[in-house]
Amino acid sequence: MSEAPSALPVVDPVGPTRTESDSVGSMEIPADAYWGIHTARARENFPITRRPISVYPDLIRALAIVKQAAARANKELGTLGAEKADLIDRVCQEIIDGALHDQFMVGVIQGGAGTSTNMNTNEVIANRCLELLGKPFGDYVSFHPIDDVNRSQSTNDVYPTAIKLAMVLSTQRLLTEHVKLTEAFARKGTEFAHVLKVGRTQLQDAVPMTLGQEFNGFAHTIAEDYERLSETIPWLNEINMGATAIGTGITADPRYADAVRRHLVDITGIVMVTSPDLIEATSDAGIFMTLSGHLKRAAVKLSKICNDLRLLSSGPQAGIGEINLPARQAGSSIMPGKVNPVIPEVVNQVAFSIIGADATVTAAAEAGQLQLNAFEPVIAHSILQSLAWMTNACYTLRVHCIDGITANMTRLTAQVESSVGVVTALTPYIGYTASATLAHTALTTNASIAELVIEAGLMSAEDVARVLSPERLSGLHPVTGAIDIVSAVESAGGVAPAK
Fold first, then answer.
1. Residues in a beta bridge with 369
2. What is the pTM of this model?
3. Tens-digit pLDDT profile for residues 43-54
4. Where are the domains positioned within the chain?
5. C-alpha distances in angstroms, 409 versus 20, 194, 196, 281, 417?
6. Annotated catalytic residue, options 26, 332, 460, 487
7. Where is the Fumarate lyase N-terminal domain (predicted)?
8. Band of pLDDT at residue 8, cut at 50, 70 and 90
């Protein structure tokens, strides 16, 4: 008989046990475990990731919030006694506040469309209620995980609602870090506002710009993704509570859907709406694809910025070397003094993971069948991981990299002075042909464009200084109005004034 993979969670209990039974049979459960037989079976059946759902605290809190709202709705409608409903409410608040998270043991990837997660939640709440009543764990005659904790509910409305709420909480946390990162780039944009540098297209020298413009560009592109991610929150707040199994609301009071929604709003302070078509809402995974897609967009754009940071800091002697990234750690086990751009590199890798996660979400959404998508656990895992990693990446990039970036002024000045790209600014005054000739001369002799223009008598030193000022080269003080193009012959007697 083949052995189970090594280093997987141990299901066989060690120490005192209690016996629990379900429709499949009986199992021994650790006597002090708040979870029960359904959780135990899931741990045995799904030893896949070795990562329990408790790695996503927002999901555990969201599950408790949904159960709390359900208990309050059932109490309001009289479908569950006040004593039991209040006890569930109390225990759920404990979980929301951070208690018992270690008892949420089922794996993040699981078969059953999230049933194992829902049952793990029901069992933990039920056994904690039993404990508060002074009764032994597993005494489900006194307090039942399904009949009491899961009253008026199904995994198929609890789980989608909980993962959507968890995604809202995680997205809000990401947006907070996103704003801070945007502000960090903008601060650098202000700091480097008058630092002239060579722009580049297709990795070749282009026209001048300021380093501040480059960093402001980073800030603006990140800000756009803040808007896109924010747009997903109202869509996530459309829920299917009251749908129960497939959207028909079987086993639930007709008033329950609205009651549980109202209590969810009261608990979270988040405006939620019940889907107008609960059958459609129970099987549709469209919003997950939208959120995942926006996350991928944000990750790809942030990764591109990190590519730029690595290029701009490359060298420092034999590369571009325009900026200095904070030195975070030794970069080599063999080359003394080497320091690598490890922070942008780790953010790049986060982006690669999010790109892959988006492909997973897309495949899982497509694979749904008929009245249910059985693959929401991998959707939830993929998106919640992406949200958590992106949040951490934004924090890490800001604190350990962006805030400490400095400009290599000596290098920047030398590159601008020797760049033929500045000749573009002179073409309105000396013409394209003369500019091309000067550019060729500068490239072959390493002479300064400004010196060549003055030596050729095409412009005065004063006019060259004015036209090639950082403000004009970077477009901060743009040249406007009609400009007379002066040929090389005409320029011998004087140059047209700068407009």
1. 372
2. 0.86
3. 999 999 989 999
4. 17-151, 157-409, 419-491
5. 72, 11, 9, 58, 12
6. 332
7. 25-356
8. very low
Number of CB atoms found within 10 A of residue 443's CB: 12
Per-residue pLDDT tens over the stretch 68-77: 999 999 999 9
User: What six digits make up the tokens of 296?
Assistant: 């991928």
- Given a contact cutoff of 8 angstroms between Cβ atoms, the answer to whether 145 and 130 are in contact is no
Give one DSSP letter per residue of 356-401, joined into a string.
HHHHHHHHHHHT-BTTB-TTHHHHHHHHHHHHHHHHHHHHHHHHHT
For 249, the token pair is 């609301």
Lowest mean per-residue pLDDT among 117-131, 164-178, 317-331: 317-331
Domain spanning 17-151 has what CATH number? 1.10.275.10
Please state, in angstroms and rounded to a whole number, the distance separating the CA atoms of residues 486 and 416.
Answer: 25
The burial of 467, by beta-carbon neighbours within 10 Å (0-12 exposed, 13-18 middle, 19 or more buried), is given as buried
Cα–Cα nearest to 282, from 436, 160, 451: 160
Q: Please name every residue paired with 274 in a beta bridge, in sequence order, or none if there are none.
A: 239
Give 322's Cβ-side CA count (13 Å radius): 23
> What phi and psi values does residue 153 have, to the nearest 5 degrees?
-125, 165
370: Cβ–Cβ under 8 A, 6 or more apart, which residues? Answer: 283
Q: Do β-strands 26-30 and 17-21 pair in parallel, antiparallel, or remain unpaired?
A: antiparallel
Which overall architecture, per CATH, does domain 419-491 show? Orthogonal Bundle (1.10)
Q: Which residue's structure tokens are 């009251």?
A: 242
Scanning the structure block, which residue is given the tokens 């199904």?
154
Q: Is 332 a catalytic residue?
A: yes
Taking a C-beta distance cutoff of 8 angstroms, is the pair 295, 362 a contact? Answer: no
